[in-house]
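Why does residue order matter? Because the sequence determines the fold. Keep that principle in mind as you read this record.
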Amino acid sequence: MSRHRFARLIGAGLILGCARPAAAMPRGVPIPDRFDGTWSVEILTEAGACDRAYRYPVRIEHGQARLVGTAFVVQGSVTRNGVVRGSIASGIATADVAGRLGPNGFGTGTWVATGAVACRGRWQAERRG
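Structure:
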């Protein structure tokens, strides 16, 4: 083995030896999620008997979404790369939600409601804080 190649292998070994997976890092101050904050979400109906449009403030904290100040139950999450998955339920229907938030402060996706009211549509979001 050449001396130059051996030196590169040692260098690579040192770099890899110093790198630790995120799970192995010491616990301390939590890293804020880049999508945390308040988002204004507009829900648009494209088919079915739901109202044409709604607008709600949604709060994201540590990747978990919750609706601010309404009677709906929101269960959902946002991954570190912005993928949105969840559901919004009322007493009569549940809507499955999918989409993506972007680092530019905007997001889009789709939803499908089932239950006593069946409809579907799209949503768009804008970061407000």
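The mean pLDDT is 80.
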